[in-house]
Here is the input.
Amino acid sequence: MATERTFSIIKPDATRRNLTGKVNAVIEESGLRIVAQKRIHMTQAQAEAFYGVHAARPFFRDLVTFMISGPVVVQVLEGENAVARYRDVMGATNPANAEPGTIRKLFAESIEANSAHGSDSTENAATEISYFFAGTEIVG
Ligand code: IDP
Ligand code: MG
Here is the structure.
């Protein structure tokens, strides 16, 4: 299996509750490496563009409002099969359906305020990483 990179966001519900370190501990204990990381406050335009694929979904406006409600931590994670592995480490979108020990089961407040984002394909990972990071900011 190849070494991959995936894109992660620690969402505003988690930064608000001072959980950045606890989320990062779950990531690192899974074996994934945090090879880039910064704390930012997304603009509305950034959040709308990032979640543009969901523009037609009924929850889109609320999701954008939530994502700009406070700071987030954007990250690049690296490891074997990182895209699929981080999806497993995060758990199901709805924390009620997430496996024990996953970030969303441990920390999420709701299906919307679910503490973490992770790319769903290697193609989307590359797009999402380049949206927030310059190549020189990623240090394996
Ligand atoms: P994912 O984050 O597990 O990939 P997506 O379906 O891509 O889930 O949805 C993106 C984000 O939109 C979710 O992480 C969550 O914050 C929010 N979301 C998804 N479904 C719902 C919903 O039914 N109600 C409210 N928010 C939702
Ligand atoms: Mg998704």
